[in-house]
């Protein structure tokens, strides 16, 4: 009887993943469109960064900031807290580590999670430069990637599963959009059409806040 219950629980758990995973990614895609169409990143963050970084270099700067935080600051914090509690085996992954109760284990889990995301992000930004993806697109999605990863990391550290999954999916979608702009010439047309539909559903949020997406 107990084995049958275990099988049922496992089946229900797998079914839940099959249902919720696509829904989380769909919701994350809608949020990416919503944030992009609002113009918050372009009109506030990019405008502020332009005072210190050339507009054409902001996307590369985001890669540098992300790498510096993950491979230097966070790595130093993990090692300085407790070397004895860290498992350096390559098989360790954050899904398993995050369930441990110690502070060091949770920080190590975040460190590994962020390292896993770096190659995708760096490749997306480099390819977007090589293929001359518009500056606005490069800046918007590179900044949104870093913000999404930061929120996802904080959520996983606080055991907030849904926000962690949502913003993790958003960060991946930002990279996929950069790849799509680089590979398919017609993608910007469909992307802007999706943004217009999203703005219409939400009563043109960009006009409400006085922002404009170009």
From TrEMBL:
Entry-linked Pfam families: MAPEG
Membrane-spanning ranges: 23-46, 58-78, 109-129, 141-160, 166-187
The keyword Acetylation is assigned to this record: no
InterPro entries: MAPEG-like_dom_sf, Membr-assoc_MAPEG
Keyword line: Membrane, Transmembrane, Transmembrane helix
Cellular compartments per GO CC: membrane
Compartments (UniProt record): Membrane
Protein name: Uncharacterized protein
Organism in which the protein naturally occurs: Piromyces finnis
């Amino acid at each position: 009887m107990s084995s049958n219950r275990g099988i049922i629980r496992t089946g229900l758990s797998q079914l839940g993943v099959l249902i919720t995973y696509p829904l989380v990614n769909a919701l994350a895609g809608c949020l990416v469109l919503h944030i992009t169409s609002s113009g918050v990143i372009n009109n506030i963050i990019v405008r502020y960064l332009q005072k210190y970084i050339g507009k054409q270099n902001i996307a590369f700067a985001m890669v540098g900031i992300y790498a510096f935080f993950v491979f230097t600051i966070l790595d130093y914090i993990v090692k300085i807290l407790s070397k004895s509690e860290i498992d350096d085996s390559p098989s360790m992954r954050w899904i398993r580590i995050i369930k441990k109760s110690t502070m060091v284990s949770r920080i190590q889990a975040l460190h590994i999670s962020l390292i896993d995301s770096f190659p995708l992000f760096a490749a997306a930004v480099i390819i977007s430069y090589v293929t001359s993806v518009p500056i606005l697109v490069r800046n918007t999605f590179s900044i949104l990637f870093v913000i999404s990863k930061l929120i996802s990391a904080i959520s996983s550290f606080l055991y907030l599963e849904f926000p962690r999954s949502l913003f993790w999916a958003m960060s991946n979608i930002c990279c996929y959009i950069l790849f799509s702009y680089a590979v398919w010439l017609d993608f910007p047309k469909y992307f802007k059409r999706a943004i217009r539909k999203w703005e219409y559903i939400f009563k043109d949020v960009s006009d409400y806040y006085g922002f404009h997406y170009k």
